[in-house]
What we know:
Radius of gyration: 23 Å
Helix content: 40-55%
Distance between the termini: 56 Å
Strand content: 15-25%
CATH topology of the largest domain: Cytochrome Bc1 Complex, Chain A, domain 1
Structural class: alpha+beta
Number of strands: 11
Number of domains: 2
Shape: globular
Strand order of the largest sheet: 1-2-6-3-5-4
CATH architecture of the largest domain: 2-Layer Sandwich
Amino acid sequence: MKRxxxxxxxxxxxxxxxxxxxxxxxxxxLNNGLHVILHRDNSAPVVTTAVMYHVGSKxxxxxxxxxxxxxxxxxxxGTKNIERGEWDKIVxxxxxxxxxxxxxxxxxxxxxxxxNSLETGLWLxxxxxxxxxxxxxxxxxxxxxxxxxxxxxxxxxxxxxxxEQICKNLFFKHPYRWAVIGSLEHLASxxxxxxxxxxxxxxxxxxxxxVVAGDFETEKTKKMISDYxxxxxxxxxxxxNQIKEDxxxxxLYATYHDPNIQIPALFMAYRTPGQAExxxxxxxxxxxxxxxxxxxxxxxxxxxxxxxxxxxxxxPLDGEDYSAYILGGLPLGEYTIQDLKDEIDAEILxxxxxxxxxxxHQKLRNKFENGYVNSNSGVEGIANSLAEDYxxxxxxxxxxxxxxxxxxITREEIREVAKKYLKVNQRLELEYLPEQQDAN
Length: 440
């Protein structure tokens, strides 16, 4: 009885936490098409200003890849009113911090300041949008930065090229077929006009969302947004082609030799629906079930119990048009890639045949609820969620309802989605090998 009462109390406490986490927001459009989202939270004197542009690697010319990631760097070079090298100094001198990141479908810039420096954040992002300097000095400087980043993260990093290899072997028509970092050769051969045209096309208010989250006065903030962003001219409408891939009907095989590794790796990748589809949420739960933490099925089986693998992994790569589900591992000792493949396939077959236990199902729900709470525990996380939910899911209020989707996923759905997508004849098998080693 005591245990039952404690369980009830725990559920009530968690329910109160989740209700308290509901995010209130207001959204509207400026005349130039900029979408604005405001989330006011005066509990701490900090505020995040963020701008997400609907441009990622998928929007690039196949002969000019890497531009979106390049602009993540280039748009810190300075503006008509901010000299080169001054951006970070302005942020730091106002007690703030900021960063940017790029992915398949979007580019995101943000700063978090003490709330009395909100105007500085709005000014910085309006400058980035309205007055960027796309000059030869900045372009040449950032080419060197991106070259060094590729050397560090891809060319000289163990297993660093896995994403690039999966992209090129899983997609054949869609622009997801090249990695976000793109081609250094394309960047090297690009002209200054190429970069100016890319900026003019995509970094415009009607292709962006501005989020202000944290401690601010609403009407005063709206006035500043109007003053700083209202005068920015609307860009031309962007035409995006919906490119469809042919279904995968037989297993795809690829091999890559990495001079930076000594232990081979197996990567198995399945092409799955875009991230807004319900099946994509189910795939996320499957990924967590198979390989999220030391208590997951694959880790316990292959690393702990059978000691066949040094490491195992399973994770989704979310995209607006398509996603990918990747799983695999590193064989240990005398075990081979084929041994891992057999064991992983056996675990997938269980998913496709039997319902997971009610205990494992509840454990999954708990993990996603904890993740929901953590992702919305601060204004930076809330700003990012609001921007992505509006831009990539077309539903800003998803920040409050997404957890209900995960709660509603049944054990039967998990089994059916595993049957539908995790088929041997619908995947890529990438054997990632040390240089000059033959495949097992």
